[in-house]
Amino acid sequence: MTTASDSPDNTDDSDAVGSGTARSSRIGRPGAALEVEGVSKHFPKLDFPVLDNISFSVPEGGFTTLIGPSGCGKTTLLRIVGGLTPATRGDIKVGGAPSIGPSRDKTMVFQHFNLFPWRTALANVVYGLELDGVPETERLERAEHFIEMVGLTGFADHYPAELSGGMQQRVGIARALAVEPKLLLMDEPFGALDALTREYLQTELQKICAQANVSVLFVTHSIDEAIFLSDHVIVMGTKPGRITAEFDVDLPRPRWTYDVRTEPQYGELRSYLWSELEKELTGAGGKLIGMSE
Amino acid sequence: MTLPGGTADLVRSGFFAEKLSKPFLMRVASIVVVLTAWQIAGQTKPTFLSSPSAIATAGWDLLVVDRRLLSAFGETLVGLGVGYAIAATLGIAVGFLMGRVRSIDIALLPYVNAMYATPRIALIPLLVLWVGIDFKLRVTIVILSSIFPIIITVRDGSKSVADRYLDLARSFVATGWQTWRTAILPGSLPFMFAALRFGAQRAMIGVIVAEMTSSVAGTGRLILTYGRFFQTERLMVPVVIIGVFSILVTAFINYLQKLATPWQKQSRGRAV
């Protein structure tokens, strides 16, 4: 079982090392939207690390997914990248610049939407801009653009309680995009939705990402979702939380124009990913069940 | 006490059942039935029960003819209003501070809990020594009666603002003040109005108790006096007025809440 530190196949560093002329003039590896280096997380009451020396990167414009069983620390990792939880050790860089704490160049989309119930859809979308002091006319203009992008035109003045789960998450996505971040951090964003809405939003998300030109770090439980959406998939294991495998998904884009699931590569990736997850679920002496250790 | 015999049968029969199934009509019918029954029963024992017509006559007398009750109620209202305004302002501020600042919570909670649990009426003799028996006593007792439930409700409410809203504010790099304004304050509003309603009821009880136990004037004193002289129909007038006033105050706070928290109104129906 490989660990994060000796995992050889980071996708983005082959052509970018050493070049000083990056889009960002700041230090760091050009071409990477996110770099995670040696991140570990310990909780005082646990005798094993929740995250053990995690390293990976997300290339600019890339879509990377973290997948793993419950308790592998993928949500904790996402919160560390988002600056909501401090890491015990390790470095995070966004767009080449060190990233400590929350910032508006990386925004989060939450599993339970986290919309303010006292704000209309529009007022939720402008939230980040409002905190930033963007003038009202510009604020509304930008918000309208993103509301249209996520397909919520006509629902701007609805309160969250008046919207379905799927529509609430569209608001969540528009809110995250409205501050024009480099990186979108999505924590099982479709996990609370029904299966049909989920599939529909997976396609929508691909269109939105292509339009908004953001890089995405995505957390999911779903094998199909991981393969359908991602350029790169990172498989995580538990106790300690670590990277156990990672691979690229080369299925041509845009993927909503054909039936991805009938591609031979899809089936291969699916069974490979399942076998990796199965090792974690069954191979480790039932370590996911009970706290016998 | 017997209800006019056929009422129940009439309600059950088709015509009335249809008309009376509407909530408004049902309420009116209920009031008419109860008042009629009271009128009939009251005429047999006027001192014990009085009757709606006797109370109405006494009300006309006390409010319009000699106006004694009007001035007494005015005194009560001033004490109530001043005390409640102070209790609401202070109570909401202290409640928020206790809910969101841990050190303040730790320092104040024992006193707030102790005062909340102690029947405030037990303090009246001491308060009479301190502030006398008139206006100041009313205000003090109103404050002591209503401020602790307000503090505790606002404290619990602001504590219970869900972590996910705070997470959200933090992830968008809200400053401390922005977090208060955009997450904690609106998230606590429903609790704040519950606190105001609760506090208003306690304030009302407080002012009447103060006037009954020690004051030389006010509505509470009038009630006591009429009771001692067995003037039941007169006694009932201020009781009814206080009751109606309480209902109006609660309705007004509900109305303010509707204005301040429009997202809580009945859902217009979910879009799909």
List the topology elements.
The complex is a heterodimer of chains A (293) and B (272).
Chain A: E1 32-41, E2 51-59, E3 63-67, H1 74-82, E4 89-94, E5 97-98, E6 106-109, H2 121-125, H3 127-132, H4 136-149, H5 165-178, E7 183-187, H6 195-212, E8 215-220, H7 223-229, E9 232-237, E10 242-248, H8 264-282
Helix pairs in contact in A: 4-5
Chain B: H1 7-12, H2 14-20, H3 23-44, H4 46-49, H5 52-65, H6 68-100, H7 102-117, H8 124-131, H9 135-159, H10 163-171, H11 176-213, H12 219-228, H13 232-260
Helix pairs in contact in B: 5-13, 6-7, 6-9, 6-11, 7-9, 8-9, 9-11, 10-11, 11-12, 11-13, 12-13
Q: Level of helix content of chain B?
A: over 70%
How do the SSEs of chain A run, as a string of H and E? Answer: EEEHEEEHHHHEHEHEEH
Write down how many β-strands of chain A occur, each being a DSSP E stretch of 2 or more residues.
10
Shape verdict of chain A = globular
Q: How many DSSP helices of chain B?
A: 13
Average pLDDT, all residues of chain B: 87
Q: Note the gap between the termini of chain B.
A: 56 Å
How are helices and strands ordered from N to C of chain B?
HHHHHHHHHHHHH
The portion of residues forming beta strands of chain A comes to 15-25%
Detail the poorly predicted runs of chain A: 1-29, 289-293
CATH topology of the largest domain in chain B: MetI-like fold
